[in-house]
Input
Amino acid sequence: MNNLFLSILHGLILGGAYGLIAVGLSVIFGVVRIINFAHGAMLMASAYAYYELFTRYDVDPFLAMIVIAPLFFVIGFLLQKVVIRPLLIRERASVLEPTSVMLFTIGLDYAIANLYLMIYTSRYKTLNTWAYSNYARLFDGKFVTQYSRIISFVLAFVVAGILWFIINRTELGKRIRAVSQNRDAAALCGVNVHTTYGIAFGLGTAALAIAGACMASFYLVSPSVGNVFGTKSFMIVVLGGLGSIPGAIIGGLIFGLIEQVGAQFITSTMASMLSFILFLIVLVIKPDGLLGKKK
Amino acid sequence: MSVIVKMEHVTKQFGGLTAVNDFSGEIEKNAIVGLIGPNGAGKTTLFNMIANYYHPTSGKIYFKDQDITEARTEDMARMGLARTFQVTKPFGDMTVLQNIMVGAFLHTTNARQVEQKAREVAGLVGMTCDLDMIANNTTTVDKKKLEIARALAVGPELILLDEVMAGCNPQEKLELVDTCRKVRDAGVTILIIEHDIKTIMSLCDKIYILHRGEKLVEGTPEQVANDKRAISAYLGEDFDNAEN
Amino acid sequence: MSYKGNSIFKGKFFVWLAALCFLVAPLLANTYMQSILILVCFYAFAAVAWNLICGYAGTMSLGHSVYMGIGGYISTILLETKGVSPWIGMLIGAAVAMLIGVVISYPTFRLKGPYFTLASIAICEIFGTFVLNTENLGPIPLKGGSGWSLTQTGYQAVMYEFRSKLGYYYVAFILLAIGVFVTWKMSRSKLGYYLVAIRSDDDAARSLGINVTKYKLIAMGISCFMISLAGTFYAQYFRYIGPDRIFGYDLAVQIALIALIGGQGTVMGPVIGAVVLVPLSEYLSATFAGTMSGLNLFLYGVIMMLVVYFMPHGLCEYVVKAAQWIEEKLFGAHGKRKQSKAASK
Output
């Protein structure tokens, strides 16, 4: 019984990190209505940025985040504004769903992942930061976990809270919401649609860079992490309801719980299969996700 | 004249909003029946219920004496009911001819027969453009005609036309009116939604005016034009003047 | 435009010429070139199978290799445990893959656009994880992550094992030819028209009496059947099958990218994609082997992005145009007027 309790705690901690990775994806989908298939690859790219900063200049990822996150905001903004925008405009004329953007991000994902494979090879690296190698002991020393995991867990809620606040409580957020509900009407009211898209994309990517700092300090860095976490974050986001910020966090927690609690009974890889099965079931029964709104 | 569609106390609610309220009515075989009313009156909702895109909250709909209230969309074409869309939905990548052929494939798998049928129908609706053109590249009026042709290709007894004339100039409207008459003469009943009163008055045998989800008036164009309620609610006081 | 892509068949000359090249080329090539040609046929066939449902009906699957894996595993297990010839095992595997494909797709076809794509990734992931972690499924050995190395049968053609690469090549070529023929037949039949209609607008398709799910399932069944044959070929040719690659995300995306870059929803698109991409990536990975693994797939990604930007209908459109141009020069303009008129508008 005690083991179960501990595995629930581990699951929640891991789930928080999953939620943090997924929340950026959810923001982008919620506003721009595209699934960024390069999400995982960009996560991986940010992790390598932290890796470089740590090994070369000994900068802790949680510190480097202050520079990397704004940098990724700019990258996301430009990606939307310069690269994706023409595709969206072209799609506008013909079909309903932006397929070409999806194909583009699939290509981008493949390109980034393999570019890093070329540069860094498939060997994985760990960052021996303070938070990685020091353990917190809670509940009379029974619950032992890396500090980096606890920081990630807290950061998940902080980042989700900030994003939620920006979108729901600020003037900028009002524009973002207007665009996400009806971009033509928003454009008529003088909102610059594509700049707003760019900002949303930037916010999502910046959140992703923060997740990258967490991942680099509690997991490992390798070209394939993008694939592993990217795929999971798609599932998490759909599970929670695409576009819903609390949904992404809750979806992440569910995934974390299934994997950690399930690992008490079956092998951990089998447990991650369970979460995919749950994802499929939810998708088929309620395509809008647990917290998703009906369109 | 026998009745092809019969609606009994049809009501449709979306959440708290009642889009169509207690509508009863009939469409006679081989007639052109018009459905008019201001925006949001529930015309398209009523339409979609006959075509079974959604099902009524309550009430019954009969098509050729069969209860179709809960039928599936894709079964309607085989039963003899076809429709067009308010916003045209051509299969953009295909040519005009291929678009029409999709409709004609319903009753046979023989590609040659299908092509022949498609060409016939294209002639009937008066497609003026090159049939080998990609559908997305055609003009608005040709897209409208394409939708009618595609729907006709399934061999329906009743065709539902949702604002086919919207966005067309007067000349094109005349062409479409002509098309509708030809379609009716080919033995197909028409239910048409339209905003242009003048067109609909000249085209229809019978008109329903919907207002806020309810049937306001029904009757021949003359009866409707002289109806006090219709004039005050929709046609406007100076309708008679505008007519001339 | 993409639907018009099949007008390449109006210029039958080029198709026969291409077929002739495919037939003769391996005879003139050395073993290394032959192995590349085999891979071209293999990937082209897989992409053709993918294209049949995903390209024509527009249901972007990024997990289609799962059916390849099912077919490959079944024929391999039958061969290794019961001594069943892979020629028979291949058909049994294909039948099972078809069944599984149809059963799984029935609920997931309700999902639209990216949701379907995500579901397909999840399905592939589930199968892969399951096989990776399962040594025995009841009485059936799966051998988990180590996979199956096929035992030698002494180069018996009846056991799908050939002494020279030419044998494998012609098997792959015949599979590809069948795949292209089936696609071509389908593209001008009711099924083909219906699938393209569904891809363009499923509401409009429904209004014309098309049972969207039914026709998608039929195409899915054919597609799963075909791609699982590729799985058996994979196992026999490489003499190995394991979960890492065949149930992996990379292979699934690679197949999709070949078809997409070549031109989805066209008969020849996937073949053109494979002819361009496979030799390129094989050449690169041979040249930079060890130093820069990933370069070949990196190029897939970059080419995909460029194709999305500059040729949304894939390479096929340009190949068709070039073929028409050459044909006009060679045989005069007769008979081609209609196409070029439509194309120019």
Q: What stands out?
A: Strands of chain B lie at 3-14, 17-28, 32-36, 58-63, 66-67, 81-83, 158-162, 189-193, 206-211, 214-219. Chain B has ten helices and ten strands. Residues 240-244 of chain B have pLDDT under 50 and may be disordered.
